[in-house]
Amino acid sequence: RKRVVVFISGGGSNMLTLAKACQAADYPAEISCVISDKASAGGLAKAEAMGIPTRVFERKGYADKAEHEAAILTALAEIKPDIICLAGYMRLLSGDFIRAHETRIINIHPSLLPLFPGLHTHQRAIDAGMKIAGCTVHFVTEGMDEGPIIAQAAVPVLAEDTAEALAARILTVEHKLYPLALKLVAEGGVRMEGGRAVTTPGTFDGTAAQ
Ligand code: GAR
């Protein structure tokens, strides 16, 4: 089983769905540690309740971004994860950090990338008059919410939608998509090669129906 570290900043509902998927005997991954940049992240207690070790690295505890990342890299050097899952980790990783774990870091973002990267993504989808929204799991490269796409899932945008209502609808498909995408990556069904996501034909079509 592949060793996974999950990075969170908040409630950790995606982390929890990954942790639950990992409980199945035939799932090809296990969570070795949950790392948070916020001591107040609700996801920490959820991880601990499932017996998963947690580590907190608050940015304010370090002189600068480089020192903060260096501390996390030191922890990762001990844990030796095969895959790093960003799950609501609201901090942009530096190029140096990403190169240290090149092709191993994946992220979930609540939009159909490359549309609406970054913050306020749900409101921006509504303001653009989108009729479909969704979520994307992708390999992490230096740009914010960029990188080769592994899998996507779509939901309708309804006429009366608020950002909160749309976020909740998307979150339900995030919880289906992320475990599927992690399984695919852990089994090697999709790999990052030459800056692209290469999928083995016949493994998984890269979508999770609503
Ligand atoms: C999720 O919707 C995730 O896609 C999003 O933050 C939320 C975290 O929820 N991530 C981003 O916006 C990254 N750019 P969770 O803590 O309950 O998993």
Strand order of the largest sheet: 3-2-1-4-5-6-7
Provide the helix percentage. 25-40%
Give the structural class.
alpha/beta
N-to-C series of helices and strands: EHEHEHEHEHEEHEE
What is the assembly state of the chains in this entry?
single chain
3D shape: globular
Task: List the ions, cofactors and other small molecules found in this model.
Answer: glycinamide ribonucleotide
User: Unreliable runs, pLDDT <50, ≥5 residues?
Assistant: none
The average pLDDT value, as a whole number, equals 96
Gyration radius (Cα, Å) is 16 Å
Distance between the termini: 28 Å
Discrete helix count: 6
Keyword list:
binds glycinamide ribonucleotide, 210 residues, seven-stranded mixed sheet, two-stranded antiparallel ribbon, 33% helix, alpha/beta
How would you describe this structure to a colleague?
The model has no long low-confidence stretch (mean pLDDT 96). α1 packs parallel to α6. The longest helix is centred in the C-terminal third of the chain and has 24 residues. With 210 residues, the protein is α/β, with parallel strands linked by helices. It contains six helices and nine strands. The two termini are 28 Å apart. 33% of the residues lie in helices and 24% in strands. Glycinamide ribonucleotide binds next to α1, β5 and α6.
